[in-house]
Amino acid sequence: MADCIFCKMVNKEVPAQAVYEDEEILAFKDINPVAPVHVIIIPKKHITDATQLKSEDAGLIGRIYLAAVQIAKELGLEENGFRLVNNCKVDGGQEVFHLHFHLLGGHKLGLFV
Ligand code: 5GP
Ligand code: ZN
Description:
- The chain has 113 residues and is α+β, with helices and mostly antiparallel strands.
- The chain contains three helices and five strands; from the N terminus they run αβββαβαβ.
- It has a five-stranded antiparallel sheet, with helices on one face.
- The site of guanosine-5'-monophosphate has 12 residues, from strand 2.
């Protein structure tokens, strides 16, 4: 999608500090981290938000979850754990309208962060 910052990162038009990439998933460090580990995990294809998911995306979402766990392990979060969050639309606090998951960890998180 033309005006989407995360699509631009997928297309390498905007630099990303990537921590994981495969054919359908990209993960990169958040530009404004709210925890010692704050990684954004996205499907490479543009999906605006969770309400736009279709049944055919079920496998993709499962693979994103597995990628998140792999990244968490690689970044040292296996022992103490982590949080995986999706903010959906305005009330969920979504600011970038390309489906993404926040992988947060590295210290004890409160209710919100
Ligand atoms: P949301 O509020 O939509 O769930 O989260 C969007 C996240 O994307 C925010 O944590 C924000 O810091 C991050 N973000 C926004 N623009 C950029 C960018 O250009 N590069 C990176 N690495 N992260 C970004
Ligand atoms: Zn996009």
